[in-house]
Amino acid sequence: MNYIEEINKLKKEKNAIILAHYYQKDEIQDIADYLGDSYNLSVIAKKSDAKIIVFCGVKFMGETAKILSPDKKVLMPHKVLPCKMANDITSKELIEYKKKNPDRVIISYVNTNADIKALSDCCVTSSNALKILEHYKDKKILYCPDKNLANYAAKTYGYDIDFWNGNCNIHDNLTVDDVIKMKELHPNALVLIHPEARYELTQLADYAGSTKGIIDYVNKSDKDEFIIGTERGILHELKKKNPNKKFYLLNECLTCKFMKLISLEDVYNCLKNEEFEITVDESIRKDAQKALDKMLELS
Ligand code: 13P
Ligand code: SF4
């Protein structure tokens, strides 16, 4: 079967769009109507007038689309797509924290499950975290669950930020030695790192920012070589847009196994059978929407 042809037919027939994150497999990125980072994809999910959204990403991304667009059918091509970082915090733990720290504004990374967003004052993504945190700079803040992004913001600006002990393992595993080794191998390359990496690594980078931020930086740069400190899926778009530039992954371990579970066959089955549908309990959804709308307002 020619999955690409069949997917395109089904998309038209059912008034569906496919959204894909930059960490998806190359062939999934290629069939997407919209490719983006967590922030851009949430904006598209909110604005789209399609009837069905097929989200090629992990669970929190599909949930975010559903929270922002409750009248649309949001489908994910694979049933089990957790995010390690999102699972580093539970609502029970956050409720206890809030009881003990009633004076803290709760800012949660979009990489959280819906119940955590519902307990939060505002969400952020890696592309708008610093701007939004600046808005709350005179307040006491809890930033959850990514300790590295919290640390980056706290140390960069000196805000009063308490943080959770969560992380994205693939970014957190990057080391200063990785940067030193790769710089020795490619002395002319610029180092671009996602802020989910540890603070000391962002300090060695020529640029620290979201996946879209990294892509925009490369597209605009007149340099030819780049060391990339984020998930390997981003290389597809970087090479496509910059065929004459060279890219080196900071560490070969930069693979998110959950992001790589979706195949073309899964996307075809998802559209054909309208599975696996994302649902969010309405009372949780309404509260989570407030935190996401606040993010969109402040971005
Ligand atoms: P961004 O899409 O905000 O760059 O975040 C990366 C990520 O970890 C998504 O899972
Ligand atoms: Fe979660 Fe990390 Fe995978 Fe992003 S790369 S989905 S933060 S585990």
List key phrases describing it:
alpha/beta; 45% helix; 299 residues; 4-stranded parallel sheet; binds iron/sulfur cluster; Rossmann fold; binds 1,3-dihydroxyacetonephosphate
Strand order of the largest sheet: 2-1-3-4
Assigned CATH class of the largest domain: Alpha Beta
Judging by the overall fold, what is the CATH architecture of the largest domain? 3-Layer(aba) Sandwich
Coarse morphology: globular
Quick overview of this protein structure:
The chain has helices at residues 3-14, 26-31, 38-47, 59-68, 91-100, 114-118, 129-135, 147-157, 169-172, 176-185, 199-204, 211-220, 234-241, 264-273, 282-298; strands at residues 16-21, 34-36, 52-56, 73-75, 104-109, 122-124, 140-144, 161-163, 190-193, 207-208, 225-229, 246-249. It is an alpha/beta fold and 299 residues long.
